[in-house]
Amino acid sequence: xxxxxxxxxxxxxxxxxxxxxxxxxxxxxxxxxxxxxxxxxxxxxxxxxxxxxxxxxxxxxxxxxxxxxxxxxxxxxxxxxxxxxxxxxxxxxxxxxxxxxxxxxxxxxxxxxxxxxxxxxxxxxxxxxxxxxxxxxxxxxxxxxxxxxxxxxxxxxx
Length: 158
Description:
Layout: E1 3-11, E2 13-18, E3 28-29, H1 31-35, E4 39-42, H2 47-59, E5 65-69, H3 72-81, E6 85-89, E7 103-108, E8 114-121, H4 128-139, H5 142-150
Parallel strand pairs: 3-7, 4-5, 4-6
Antiparallel strand pairs: 1-8, 2-6, 2-7
InterPro entries: LysR_subst-bd
Domain LysR substrate-binding: 3-124
Protein name: LysR substrate-binding domain-containing protein
């Protein structure tokens, strides 16, 4: 069996906090700096959390985890209260944070993104619906759409 694989975009993890939470002003934050902040993270069994734990391990620091959950909604709710910051994939934010609620986001130094994509069996008959869905998904510029809806420039002056 042959498999066709298409990469759609690079998945970037970012540290996010409400606008009035005091974060360093530079566009990237170190793992050492992130470890000192009160963190709300996904549970240890989730792939995104495993990537984050690897980042802290490589930096040789222990993160200050205040809350763990397998619910993005719960993490986002706690984040918006302003008591914690989080590290999540950038694409997890636009559907859960309304336009009036502002977040500041920082890239994590030295973080290698994973890739999100699609795969399908090439030898199997493909339905019209599946073929159209595949065509639509690969035609979208996902990286641009995520950047447009999720990323905000880091302010250098407050």
